[in-house]
Amino acid sequence: MTPNILRTAHAEFRVTDLERAKTFYVDALGFSILHQDSERLYLGNIEERDPYSLVLRKSAQPGLGHLAFKVERESDLDGLAWIAGEDGLTHKWLEQDSKYKMGRTLAIQDPHGIPLHFYYEAERRDWSLQKYSEHRGARIQRIDHFNCQVHDVRRAYEWYTKRLGFHCSEYTAANDVPKVPGEYSPANPSFSWRCVETDDLWATWLHRKPNVHDIAMMNGIGPRLHHVGFWAYDRLSILDACDILASMGMVDRIERGPGRHGLSNAFFLYLRDFDNNRIEIYTGDYLITDWDVPPVRWSINDKRRATFWGHLPPKSWFDEASLVEDIVTGDLMPTSEPKFFGRPSFVV
Ligand SMILES: [Fe+2]
């Protein structure tokens, strides 16, 4: 039986200076500190009820510690361990986190080496949804998604959809013209399903909760984390974040945007923390409740896909990403070259 993964839950970033990271995440963007010790800051946002959604862990080198998903039942963890064993993936059970009454957690290095954690049981905390007097910074509501770079997006698509039960909402084809005859139309969903099975996949947006994604996989040097996305209440919150960062002398932390994506329709802003870990502040994608809705197809060379208004992303957004951690050794994983070389035609 396919395990029931509920949603994106939390991420752990490695940072070289906790105090400096705090000025970015807490003082500027308004993340709340839920717990801290000499090695870690545990941060959360307005609408969340989990113990935390972002952990900053002091480390000599920056990068990604892990990405975590919550599952529906404890038995889903056993199902995931079985899949990892069948697929020959490195995996291990982690000790319970007594501090947060987190139940047992399964760590899996996915087929490309992305470090994943899965958990079922976690202490609930009081949210601050209607504590408006406490809302600050970008007024981030909740964690939304992960975005990774891997060397073979087709392989990632197959594993996440067929083994873990993810659904593809949108994707980018490396080939401009579909390989199957026909024309996209909402009245012809079977055409879209045949396209996603036959196109050269440049990137794929995969979800379990009913919005555009919980995890996206993009063609690139990998395994690397491109960014973690956080949901903001509205577009004005994103514009406020720009003003706050600028007024605090952090203009170099703003990498791309604000703007609107064609793919996902979301209003976005990409930021780099002081260790160049990347986050996206994101709002305005859409609801997907019907799993028979076919994925939306985008050609890689369609300018509106990346930014609906046609603005070009900076080179750093395409080239730079965070290395990820080996779940056994704690070292940063080696990377491989991507399956598809080159860039979208609109990138200079
Ligand atoms: Fe994103």
Structure description:
The chain is of the alpha+beta class. It has a single domain (5-121, 141-323), classed as 2,3-Dihydroxybiphenyl 1,2-Dioxygenase, domain 1 (Roll), CATH 3.10.180. The protein is 19% helix and 32% strand. The protein has seven helices and 18 strands. The protein has helices at 18-28, 74-86, 153-163, 189-198, 235-247, 303-306, 315-319; strands spanning 5-15, 32-36, 40-44, 54-58, 63-71, 91-94, 105-109, 115-119, 140-150, 167-173, 201-207, 215-219, 224-232, 254-260, 267-272, 278-283, 296-299, 322-323. Strands 9, 10, 11, 12, 13, 14, 15, 16, 17 and 18 form a ten-stranded mixed sheet that branches. The protein has an eight-stranded mixed sheet with strand order 2-3-4-1-5-8-7-6, with helices on one face. It is globular, with a radius of gyration of 19 Å. It starts with a strand and ends in a 25-residue tail after the last strand. The mean pLDDT is 95.
SSE blueprint and pairings:
Blueprint: E1 5-15, H1 18-28, E2 32-36, E3 40-44, E4 54-58, E5 63-71, H2 74-86, E6 91-94, E7 105-109, E8 115-119, E9 140-150, H3 153-163, E10 167-173, H4 189-198, E11 201-207, E12 215-219, E13 224-232, H5 235-247, E14 254-260, E15 267-272, E16 278-283, E17 296-299, H6 303-306, H7 315-319, E18 322-323
Parallel strand pairs: 1-4, 5-8, 9-12, 10-17, 13-16
Antiparallel strand pairs: 1-5, 2-3, 3-4, 6-7, 7-8, 9-13, 10-11, 11-12, 13-18, 14-15, 15-16
Bound molecules: fe (ii) ion.
